[in-house]
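Action item from last week, closing it out:
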Amino acid sequence: MGPPDNFLTMLRRIEDAGYQAVCLTVDCPTGGWRERNMRNRFDPDPAVITGNYPMDGDVAPEEVFGQLFTKTARVWGWDDLAGLMARTPLPWMAKGILTGEDADAAVRAGASAVLVSNHGGRQLDGAPAAFDQLPEVAEAVGDRARIALDSGVRRGSDVVKALALGADVVKALALGADVVVLGRLAAYGLGAGGEAGVRRVHQLLRGEIETILTLLGRGGVRDIGPDAVRQSAS
């Protein structure tokens, strides 16, 4: 059975809009168990998170977001995902990878990159930290795909640690890595000062990274290796 027409339509829209790649979250078929939201009776209007998929359009939000709306919705497997993404020339990244096994499966399904992420710890309670899982993922992927890191990046030192552990972490400022993944930091800057706030976040990160590299005696991020960090025994 081929991919649903609705999803093919979505891919065509992405291509027509001029995007150069697609990032697919592969580990969140439903929302996390968030007790604070339950206590606060937080019940978001679906229209808030489905603005790109109008309720009267050809693509039903329930089909797009699966068990986020409908607990009985079918969960896709790697073969389903590979079949869909084979229908577009755009490269794609698998987000939400925390194990070497899943990293290998994503690459075999055609992913050009994997994004090591536990979604800031907001989904599966007790999930391991992205930093802790990074070496395992890097070993499984090798040179077959790019590796990016999300979750837990708060300071320039976090960027340097991720580089040292084997990830290609975001290069917003021509610092030498391939990708920069900033979630909450960019959101904080945006909330505090709009576009100028986001730029200020980047400036602060750059300053921190340059200082850390100098203190480590490294001329640039390309000089960072596993010897720059020491992982705790725990």
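Closing note: Residues 167-177 have pLDDT under 50 and may be disordered.
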